[in-house]
Amino acid sequence: MKKAVVLLSGGLDSATCLAMARDRGYQCYTIAFDYGQRTRSELDAAKRVSAALGAVSHRVIELGMGNIGGSALTDHSIEVPEEGGDGIPVTYVPARNTVFLSLALGLAEVVDAEAIYIGVNAVDYSGYPDCRPAFIEAFQAMAGLATKAGVEGRPVTIETPLMHLSKAQIIQAGTALGLDYGLTVSCYQADENGNACGKCDSCRLRKQGFDEALVKDPTNYQ
């Protein structure tokens, strides 16, 4: 059976990616990152989603990105914004997806996976530069050059099935696959039980997505 590594944050998008990969016939190896983020409850959510969708294994990799700082998600001295704005927001974590994909690429080589699934999105992407198609294309080229699999002519493919979908379309797709979004946590500042603030950009996009998808929002709010 073909294999895929799925980056799983515990949020809505990555959970949908896992459901899609499974639906496409992949044995899935999920990977989450404890990178110093504000909310630990998303790691609990990732574990729940991985188990519910029958992943072969679930790994949590510890990273010290909180030691670098520079983001409202890793530096508690920077407030999480509760209104959208222009430009790259302070919730951007410097080089996060570059680091995440690099480690996922290593795991893909170890388990002999042919694909990596990541839930980046160019529609509702909050202005993050490492969620754009150009970034994925560049990383794909690098993956072909920097790995044993790539040199041997079987490069790992970076799959981005959500890239051009709206949040509503993502929710509709996951719902059609039977995904329980009540298992997920998207909030930038959820409490230890996973209850969402209902005010941050991530909550705003999630709420709007459920409204536009005409799907009941299962989120627990503070």
Automatic annotation (TrEMBL):
InterPro entries xrefs: QueC, Rossmann-like_a/b/a_fold
Pfam families, alphabetized: QueC
Requisite cofactors: Zn(2+)
Cofactor note: Binds 1 zinc ion per subunit.
Residues holding ATP: L8, S9, G10, G11, L12, D13, S14, A15, T16, C17, L18
Job of this protein: Catalyzes the ATP-dependent conversion of 7-carboxy-7-deazaguanine (CDG) to 7-cyano-7-deazaguanine (preQ(0)).
Protein name as annotated: 7-cyano-7-deazaguanine synthase
Organism, scientific name: Alcanivorax profundi
